[in-house]
Specification:
The structure is a single chain. With 449 residues, the protein is an alpha/beta fold. It folds into two domains: 3-211 and 434-448, Rossmann fold; 218-427, Rossmann fold (3-Layer(aba) Sandwich), CATH 3.40.50. The chain is built from 20 helices and 13 strands. The chain has helices spanning 3-10, 13-34, 54-70, 75-81, 110-118, 163-175, 184-193, 209-212, 219-227, 232-249, 253-258, 278-284, 291-300, 312-315, 343-349, 360-366, 378-385, 402-410, 414-427, 436-448; strands at 40-47, 82-86, 103-106, 119-124, 139-142, 178-181, 199-202, 265-270, 303-308, 334-336, 352-355, 371-374, 398-399. A seven-stranded parallel sheet has the order 3-2-1-4-5-6-7, sandwiched between helices. Strands 10-9-8-11-12-13 form a six-stranded parallel sheet, with helices on both faces. Helix 3 (54-70) packs across helix 20, helix 9 (219-227) crosses helix 15 and helix 13 packs parallel to helix 18 (402-410). The longest helix is centred in the N-terminal third of the chain and has 22 residues, at 13-34. It is globular, with a radius of gyration of 22 Å.
Length: 449
C-alpha cells in the first residue's frame, strides 16, 4: 500500500472529506484549463481507477496489437496514442509485450488530467468523477465493471445509494456515447438502471477473453507467477505430494498418464465481494478453514493452494498487515492475490472459484470451471440492496456455513451444474466468444480514422 492509502485509514473522517473537497476543486480548475487545449483525435485514454485490469486493460492491449498490424508506428509513437490511467500501477510481471507500449499515468495527476482533456476517445469501466467534463468532439465508451450483475444497480436501487452518487451517475450517462454489453439482458438493464438512450454494442466482455481463450492470453504464465509466490520448499513439497498421490491411484502405466492432471498444483480463488463496513470486510477474509483445502483435493485431485482476492474497494480499507484474509491451518498455502491488478487473469489461471455475491461467479462458470457460493448473510445483503436473481435459485452450490461448503465441494456434480448454467446463460442471451476486446479495438480504430 502507498502512504496515502495508509493515511486514509487512520485519518478522521472529517479531515478526509475536507481534503477530498479541496483536492476536487483543484482538479476541476486544472481540468478547465487543460480543456482549452486541442483534442488529438487519435489519442485514446483507457481508465480503471482500481488498477491495470478489467475491460479497459484487455481492450487497450488489443488496440496496441491492432496498431502494430495496421500502421508503421514505432512503439514510442504508440505509447503517445495509448494511455492508461489508474491509481494502482501494474507490477513489472504484468507488463507483457503490449503493455510495454502503453503509457501509464496516475489517476488525478496533472498528466492524467491533460490526457483526458485532449484525448479523442475515452474508454472506462467506472463512472467518471463529477469534475471531469467531456467536450463535444470527444467520444466516451463505457464498458461497465459489473458484467452480468447480481446486485441491483443505480436507478434500480436508488433508495440505497447516496443521492450524490445517483446524480453523478446520471451526469456520466449523459456524457457517454457508447455502451459495451455482453447480453440482451444487460442491454435492457443499461437502458433502465442507467437511463442510457444512445448506442449499445453487444460485443461481450473484454475481460472474459482470457477466460475463454486462456492459451492466447498466457494463462499458464500467470499460473506460474502465482505459484512462484509460494516458498520454494512448499512448492517442491506440494509437487512431490501430488506425484505420490497420483502414483498411488494408478493401476497401469497408461492410466497413470491419463491422470496427469493430478500431478500439478491446482489453484482455488477466494474472492468475496465488497462490504460497506471494514469489520464485515475483515470477517469475510477470516471465515474459511483448512478443511476446505482437503475437500478440494479429495474432490478434484492433486494438491491445492488458495489465492485470496478482495474487492478493490475493500483492499483500500483493510490493513494488509493485520489481515490474514483466510485462517487456513496451513497459511503457507495461501497466496495474496491482491498485489495483482487484474482478477480475470488470476481466474484464467485458476481451477476453482469461491465467492459470495460477486458477478465473477457468472464469468468463471461460463467457461466450465467449478464455482462455489459461500454466504453467511444472504438475508441482510438482499434487504439492503436487492438482487436481480433470487439467490437460492442461482445455478451454483450454495453454502451458509463452512460445513455446508465442505459438503458442497465433496459432492460437486460438474455435469449437473454445467447444464443448469448453460440454460441460465441462454435464457438471458449472453454473447461471449473470447473476441470482445478485438471488436472494441476495431470500433475505436474506425472512430479515430
Amino acid at each position: 500500500m502507498d502512504i496515502r492509502s495508509d493515511v486514509k485509514k487512520i485519518a478522521p473522517e472529517g479531515a478526509i472529506i475536507k481534503y477530498r473537497t479541496l483536492r476536487e476543486n483543484v482538479i476541476e480548475k486544472e481540468f478547465k484549463f487543460f480543456n482549452m487545449f486541442k483534442v488529438e483525435k487519435d489519442k485514446v485514454v483507457f481508465s480503471n481507477v482500481w488498477g491495470y485490469g478489467d475491460n479497459p486493460r484487455w481492450i487497450a492491449e488489443s488496440y496496441v496489437r491492432l496498431l502494430k498490424r495496421t500502421t508503421n508506428y514505432p512503439n514510442s509513437v504508440i505509447a503517445e496514442k495509448v494511455i492508461f490511467i489508474t491509481s494502482k500501477p501494474p507490477l513489472k510481471e504484468e507488463l507483457n509485450e503490449e503493455a510495454q507500449c502503453i503509457t501509464f499515468l496516475k489517476t488525478n495527476s496533472k498528466s492524467a488530467i491533460y490526457a483526458l482533456a485532449t484525448a479523442g476517445v475515452w474508454v472506462d469501466c467506472n463512472r467518471k468523477e463529477s469534475y471531469i467534463q467531456k467536450k463535444r468532439n470527444q467520444i466516451y465508451i463505457q464498458t461497465w465493471h459489473g458484467g452480468l450483475p447480481l446486485k441491483r444497480l443505480e436507478l434500480d436501487c436508488r433508495d440505497y445509494l447516496p443521492q450524490d452518487y445517483i446524480r453523478n451517475a446520471l451526469r456520466d450517462t449523459q456524457m457517454t456515447d457508447i455502451y459495451i454489453s455482453n447480453s440482451e439482458w444487460c442491454n435492457e438493464l443499461y437502458r433502465r438502471a442507467f437511463g442510457f438512450k444512445k448506442k449499445i454494442f453487444c460485443f461481450g466482455s473484454a475481460r472474459m477473453d482470457p477466460l475463454i481463450r486462456p492459451v492466447r492470453f498466457s494463462a499458464g504464465a500467470m499460473r506460474e507467477k502465482l505459484l512462484s509466490r509460494l516458498p520454494d520448499s512448499v512448492y517442491r513439497r506440494l509437487l512431490n505430494e501430488a506425484y505420490i498421490k497420483a502414483y498411488k491411484m494408478k493401476e497401469t502405466a497408461s492410466e497413470f498418464d491419463e491422470k496427469k492432471d493430478h500431478l500439478r498444483i491446482n489453484i482455488a480463488v477466494y474472492a468475496p465481494t465488497y462490504r460497506d463496513a471494514v469489520s464485515e470486510t475483515q470477517e469475510r477474509g477470516n471465515e474459511i478453514g483448512g478443511s476446505i483445502i482437503n475437500a478440494l483435493e479429495t474432490r478434484f485431485g492433486g494438491k491445492f493452494v488458495v489465492v485470496t482476492r478482495f474487492h478493490p474497494l475493500a483492499m483500500s480499507r483493510v490493513n494488509h498487515i493485520n489481515s490474514a484474509y483466510l485462517t487456513f491451518d496451513e497459511k503457507e498455502r495461501i497466496i495474496d492475490g491482491n498485489e495483482f491488478s487484474d482478477l480475470y487473469s488470476i481466474m484464467a489461471a485458476a481451477d476453482v472459484l469461491i465467492t459470495d455475491y460477486s458477478n465473477c461467479m457468472f464469468e468463471m462458470s461460463y467457461v466450465g470451471k467449478p464455482v462455489f457460493l459461500y454466504a453467511t448473510d444472504v438475508e441482510k445483503y438482499e434487504d439492503t440492496r436487492g438482487m436481480y436473481f433470487e439467490y437460492d435459485t442461482l445455478p451454483f452450490p450454495i453454502a451458509r456455513t463452512e460445513k455446508e461448503l465442505y459438503e458442497n465441494i465433496l459432492t460437486y456434480d460438474r455435469e449437473g451444474y454445467r447444464q443448469q448454467q448453460e440454460e441460465f446463460f441462454e435464457n438471458i442471451g449472453v454473447v461471449e466468444n473470447g473476441r470482445a476486446a478485438d471488436k472494441v479495438a476495431k470500433l475505436i480504430r474506425r472512430l479515430v480514422d
